[in-house]
Structure formats: structure tokens, C-alpha cells
From TrEMBL:
Ca(2+) 1 binds at F24, G26, G28, E68, I254, G258, T299, E304. The gene is LOC103710539. It comes from Phoenix dactylifera. GO terms for cellular component: cytoplasm; plasma membrane. GO terms for biological process: response to cold; response to heat; response to salt stress; response to water deprivation. This is Annexin. Ca(2+) 3 binds at D298.
Length: 315
């Protein structure tokens, strides 16, 4: 369930655009007004506000925001204001340009979205950067990571619930064979993870657990420091249980040495209209603390206020 709270009655896009313009005028910026508007509007409403702002003031809202705010607050507002596909395209481009083996952003985008959503991301990427996402991923990654990531971001999985039980059993055995042989980069293992539907994969992983006595991710922990094995585990978690995957990202962002604001901002902005309410429930159960309180303890100022708005705090 989404955490975003939109008022029952909202002003017209042109009225919201006018109020945002007022937030930028005079001495200082009215950050609270920005949060009260953008932090409580859906993707369609934000898109309409951007269009109204452009028509009224002959300026892009994102450019205006960029000139008025800064730091973690700016990143949160700008990411949130983008359309979901635009946002993912921007995050994907940042991930490939600054790619490191431990970076999981491309896996999140490829595996925690529907096939239609991932296709829209590829279209948005193409439109904005004049290159395909696939070619950039191939150009900036190497070795086993390229073998995994290129087909992941290129995938268009079947979205239905139909499954093939015989196939699930045979592919569970195939996965076990390759993992037991430590052939983690085997083309058959990669093929299964990158092409099968999510429903089919969940059935395969369940059969793996039933037949071999432990979850597939446990068998992929033979070397906890191996970044490629961690990437395989992240792929499986994003496909099977994205809410638990993203809870862990938030937990590590908050509990590490210093807050990882980029990771925290990313998860809050990309999941607020998807399942952030469920992620917050998983977080509270796992950490015996409400996510809202954890964010209050680790952030401050306008950045904190924006994140709490997206978590569902009333305007």
C-alpha cells in the first residue's frame, strides 16, 4: 500500500503552480509551502503542476526548484517531482555513470517494477539521454555483472499468474546444481533469473526450499563478501519480496556509520506511491521502532519534513 496522502480536495494545477511561484519569491524560499504542495500530490497531479508552471511562467518547475533549494532536501524534492519512469531513468543513469559492484540501483529498477513500468523506464531513458539503457549498462559494467544486468534491464517478463509446475521443479534442480558447483555465472542460472515471470520464479524458489531444505538465497551466501553473489541475492529478494528488500536498504541507510541519505531518499521517493506503508510496517516489526521515529532521529529540517510527508504525515 502507498503511504502518500493526497487531500480529498486539491487546488487546480494552475493554483498549485501559482503558490509554488510565491514560495520562490521574496527574501528566502518558503520550503514549507513547497512540501505542503508537492509532498501531497500524486504523480498525475505533479505532472499537471509542472505543465501549468511551464505554461504560466515559461520556465521548468524542476529548474526553478533547483535554483531555490539545495542539499538532501533538493534531491528529495526533485526526485519526487519527476514522473516515476523519468525518476527511474535518472537514477539508472546516475548508477551506470558511477557504477560500482556493490551498487544495487539497476537491480531495484529491473526487478521491483512491472514489465510495463520497466519498459516505460527504458523509453524515458532513451528520450532523455539519447541512448538506450541497455547500451549504457553494457558500456559501464564488465564480466559477470554485465552478464546479469544487461538482460535484467532488457527484460519484459510475463505478468500473469499462470505457472508451469514441472518447469519449476526442473529449474529448481538446475539452480541447485549450478549453485552447488559454484557456477554462479552460468548462462542457465542467469537465463532463469532474467527471463521467467515473477510468479514462475517464486514457485521455483519455493520448490528449491522444499526439495533442498533451505532457501536459494542461503545457498548463495557461501562467500558473504562476494559482490556478485550479493547481486544475485538482491535480484531474488527484489522479485520475491520487495518490501523486505527495501526495508533492509532503509535499515542499513539509517543504522550505518552516518546516514546514507541517497539510499534513504531513493527508497522513500520511489516507493511512496507503491508500497511504502507496507515497508514501514515491516520496518517496525523488524526494528521495534516506527520508521517515522527512525527518520526523525536521523534527519533534520526541511529534508526530514519532506520524507515524513511522503511517509504519510498529514499536510
Amino acid at each position: 500500500m502507498a503511504s502518500l496522502k493526497v487531500p480529498a480536495t486539491v487546488p487546480s494545477p494552475s493554483e498549485d503552480a501559482e503558490q509554488l511561484r510565491k514560495a520562490f519569491e521574496g527574501w528566502g524560499t518558503n520550503e514549507g509551502l513547497i512540501i505542503s504542495i508537492l509532498g501531497h500530490r500524486s504523480a498525475a497531479q505533479r505532472r499537471a503542476i509542472r505543465q501549468a508552471y511551464r505554461q504560466s511562467y515559461n520556465e521548468e518547475l524542476l529548474k526553478a526548484l533547483d535554483g531555490e533549494i539545495s542539499g538532501d532536501f533538493e534531491r528529495a524534492v526533485l526526485l519526487w517531482t519527476l514522473d516515476p519512469a523519468e525518476r527511474d531513468a535518472w537514477l539508472a543513469n546516475e548508477a551506470v555513470r558511477k557504477w560500482r559492484p556493490e551498487n544495487r540501483v539497476l537491480i531495484e529498477i529491473a526487478c521491483a517494477r512491472s514489465s510495463g513500468e520497466l519498459f516505460a523506464v527504458r523509453q524515458a531513458y532513451h528520450a532523455r539521454f539519447k541512448r538506450s539503457l541497455e547500451e549504457d549498462v553494457a558500456a559501464h559494467t564488465t564480466g559477470d555483472f554485465r552478464k546479469l544486468l544487461v538482460p535484467l534491464v532488457s527484460a519484459y517478463r510475463y505478468e500473469g499468474e499462470e505457472i508451469n509446475l514441472t518447469l519449476a521443479k526442473s529449474e529448481a534442480r538446475m539452480l541447485h546444481e549450478k549453485i552447488s558447483d559454484k557456477a554462479y555465472n552460468h548462462e542457465e542460472l542467469i537465463r532463469i533469473l532474467t527471463t521467467r515471470s515473477k510468479a514462475q520464479l517464486i514457485k521455483t524458489f519455493n520448490h528449491y526450499n522444499d526439495e533442498f531444505g533451505k532457501p536459494v538465497n542461503k545457498d548463495l551466501k557461501s562467500d558473504p563478501k562476494d559482490d556478485f553473489l550479493a547481486a544475485l541475492r538482491a535480484t531474488i529478494r527484489c522479485i520475491c519480496c520487495p518490501e523486505r528488500y527495501f526495508e533492509k536498504v532503509i535499515r542499513l541507510a539509517i543504522n550505518g556509520l552516518g546516514t546514507d541519505e541517497n539510499a534513504l531518499t531513493r527508497v522513500i521517493t520511489i516507493r511512496a506511491e507503491v508500497d511504502l506503508k507496507v515497508i514501514a510496517e515491516v520496518y517496525q516489526k523488524r526494528n521495534s521502532m516506527p520508521l517515522e521515529r527512525a527518520i526523525k532521529g536521523d534527519t533534520s529540517g526541511d529534508y526530514e519534513a519532506m520524507l515524513l510527508a511522503l511517509l504519510g504525515q498529514e499536510a
